[in-house]
Amino acid sequence: SPLTVGFDFELTHKNLFVYRAGSYGNGLPHPYTSREQWASSPGLAESFRLKYSRFESAIGAHTGYQWYPRYAVIRVNGGVDFRVVKNFYDEDNNQPFDQTVKEQLNWTSINSFWTSVSFDGRDFAYDPSSGWFLGQRCTFNGLVPFLEKEHSFRSDTKAEFYVTLLNYPVSAVWNLKFVLAFYTGVSVQTYYGWRKSKTGKSNGVRSGALVIDGVLVGRGWSEDAKKNTGDLLLHHWIEFRWPLAHGIVSFDFFFDAAMVYNIESQSPNGSSSASSSSSSSSSSTEGLYKMSYGPGLRFTLPQFPLKLAFANTFTSAGG
């Protein structure tokens, strides 16, 4: 049937780590005393961070419809998600640097509505070797003005293109096949409503901003890249794929580039709470592409979606 309807239920418990709040009044986490020290630091080990537990329960519903014209499969989807979150940590002796973690020490409601549309012209959706894909997703977080503190709008746009370079039959059961894959994505997130102060500026440093996570975005970049968060994320990659066993495992060589940038002068996770000198030094590192390249193995079984990558990292500034 072209019409789909589904329901989701989630119950999770996680042990997480976050930077502790600083005591110098400079808008930086403990133990950093300057923006330069924070920018050049490789990060703190988990043993020096604040450990907290996060309990989260969610219920949601989604629906979708798809059409099958000759040139592509068109899908339109939408859904709602209702969550309740609570963090647990020793508030008498510890304060997190992340304001969202601090606020969620109390039971917090997080509700969202999302909608998406896509045009799929790939030969196979899971492991394509030719074709193209275009997708757009919009998410509204914070549906109840007085009940929720996080109100944001996020837009995710992505495009993919695949072309087969070689497909030569070596035996009756195996072909020598080379595929070139391209991806580009643009994400924009903006905050509104009770998320901001009376002056219109963001209230402190909070999680939920766009970030280079080092796994799906900016492969190989970890703690250093996570310091740079913002409201605009650009992500591009190129992959040369060699299926060793079609539908099971593939050897890949990738080139990945990601950049996060602050469109507004006061970003959600920017330096609004820091001094002006700190802001100027922070802006010098914003807008740089975090790049990586290297080989990897990609398991293409739908039941076992695992990627192993060996990444070499560098920046667009030549560092």
Automatic annotation (TrEMBL):
Chief location: membrane
InterPro entries associated with the record:
Bac_surfAg_D15 (IPR000184)
What positions does the domain Bacterial surface antigen (D15) occupy?
Answer: 34-317
List the biased-composition ranges (Low complexity). 271-284
Kindly indicate whether the keyword Membrane belongs to this entry: yes
- Chain positions covered by the region annotation Disordered: 267-288
Per the record, the domain of life is: Bacteria
Q: Tell me where in or outside the cell this protein is found.
A: Membrane
Record-linked Gene3D superfamilies: membrane protein fhac: a member of the omp85/tpsb transporter family
Q: Which GO terms describe its cellular component?
A: outer membrane
Keyword list, A-Z: Membrane
Pfam family of the protein (one) = Omp85
In its UniProt entry, what is this protein called?
A: Tp92
Q: Which organism is it from?
A: Treponema pallidum
